Amino acid sequence: MGRSNEEIIGRDDVDDLGEILLLSNQDRDEVIHGVESNADTIFTWDYDKGQRPALEKLYEKAKNSMWNGETDLDWSIEVDQEEQARKSPMTMNAELLQELGIDLKGTSLEKWDEDQWIAHAIESQNWSLSQFMHGEQGALLCTAKIVETVPWVDAKYYASTQVMDEARHVEVFSKYLDTKLSGHYPINHHLKLLLDDIISDSRWDMTYLGMQIMVEGLALAAFGLAIQVTSDPLLKKLLRYVMSDEARHVAFGVLSLQEFYAELSDAEMMDRQEFAFEAAVRMRDRFLMQEVWEKEGIPVKEAIRIFALDDEETKNQDPFQQLLFSKIVPNCKKLGLLDANDGWLRKRFDTLGVSQFEDWTDTGEEYELLDEVAKDRDGVTRFADLGVRQP
């Protein structure tokens, strides 16, 4: 039952680097990108607010949690990107890689010195925050679509607050990139394909699934890691504010879809399972950073094999990849997507090495904790409290 990998993602082997690298952004100077939206705009004449109490609670919380990126963040803080890279525990060097069991002998990176690794860390930060900015614009458009297409007034009310949240996120990431960092990157092609798929699907719940569950789930986990590794107080506070919003956004998807998916047939659930798997693969492929390696003149396939898909024993143990799925998998389980159709999606997640996260706490239950910790006013955010842990 269900389509093959070839039919879903265009290749049989999810780790086929040759096929992955065939997909790249060929129009990097593009300023305007159009996507056909095939969904119907739905009016509802039922204005009875509160029929879905969990969504009403989210709506009220969202109204009280608005922040202003211009006035609530101190943009006068100077950011020394090179110094930040030298302090970051995520900055790679030959000694650290050797400790991790990664052998650079005979590779293009064998003779890199400390300055080259620092330059790589700077480019990686520029790339990462650029992709987050592009993803936030995707969330802005998707949430506007949810306002138009969801049939419930409580969901329309809440989604309208998320439109404002996402505009604010695009604004602050763009300003941080422009004024504190040293360069933008165009959107990664794998991310672009995923956002196009989410926008173009005619079914309102697919917009929820693709954006609220998959993309926002990734962002929530990734921002939790970024808070831990940056020593920049401006970025730390920016990310805490963004995370306080993202926690509600993911919860919005979980709480909304749980009711709807309980009524779907096996065939309808299979469509959602395939969509979730395709989104998961595209998001994993997006983090291979091929644009950074290209800019640095390093053979992309060689670099990716060193760090991401080196061999069968290590390719699924990357801590960032684990973090990537630590929100997605339990939320998919909450929605019934893992177990439907004899566990089809669980088996596919097995091929990505991430099914072990299925029993971790889902965001529908923990968003209030995430909200409070993310905005911890004394500036201390504890990694364990961000939900990236076993229950």
CATH class division: Mainly Alpha
Count of distinct structural domains: 1
- What is the ordering of alpha helices and beta strands? HHHHHHHHHHHHHHHHH
The SS-based structural class is: mainly alpha
Radius of gyration: 20 Å
User: From the 3D coordinates, which CATH architecture would you assign?
Assistant: Up-down Bundle
Strand content is under 5%
Contiguous runs where pLDDT drops below 50 for at least 5 residues: 313-317, 377-391
CATH superfamily: Ferritin, core subunit, four-helix bundle
Spatial shape: globular
User: What's the N-to-C terminus distance?
Assistant: 32 Å
DSSP helical segment count: 17
CATH topology heading: Ferritin
Tell me how many strands there are.
0
Q: Mean pLDDT, rounded to whole units?
A: 87
Helix fraction, binned, reads: 55-70%
Largest sheet: none
Question: What is the strand and helix layout of this fold?
Answer:
Layout (H helix, E strand, L loop, with lengths): L4 H5 L7 H5 L31 H11 L17 H7 L6 H6 L14 H36 L3 H28 L8 H12 L3 H26 L3 H29 L4 H21 L3 H6 L4 H8 L11 H7 L2 H7 L5 H13 L10 H12 L17
Helix pairs in contact: 3-7, 3-10, 4-6, 6-7, 6-8, 6-9, 7-10, 8-9, 8-11, 9-10, 9-11, 9-14, 10-17, 11-16
Quick recap:
The protein is mainly alpha-helical and 391 residues long. The chain contains 17 helices and no strands. The protein has a single domain (56-63, 81-386), classed as Ferritin, core subunit, four-helix bundle (Ferritin).
Describe the protein in words.
The structure is a single chain. This protein is mainly alpha-helical and 391 residues long. It has a single domain (56-63, 81-386), classed as Ferritin, core subunit, four-helix bundle (Ferritin). The chain is built from 17 helices and no strands. It has helices spanning 5-9, 17-21, 53-63, 81-87, 94-99, 114-149, 153-180, 189-200, 204-229, 233-261, 266-286, 290-295, 300-307, 319-325, 328-334, 340-352, 363-374. Helix 9 (204-229) packs parallel to helix 11 (266-286), helix 10 packs antiparallel against helix 17 (363-374) and helix 11 runs parallel beside helix 16. It is globular.
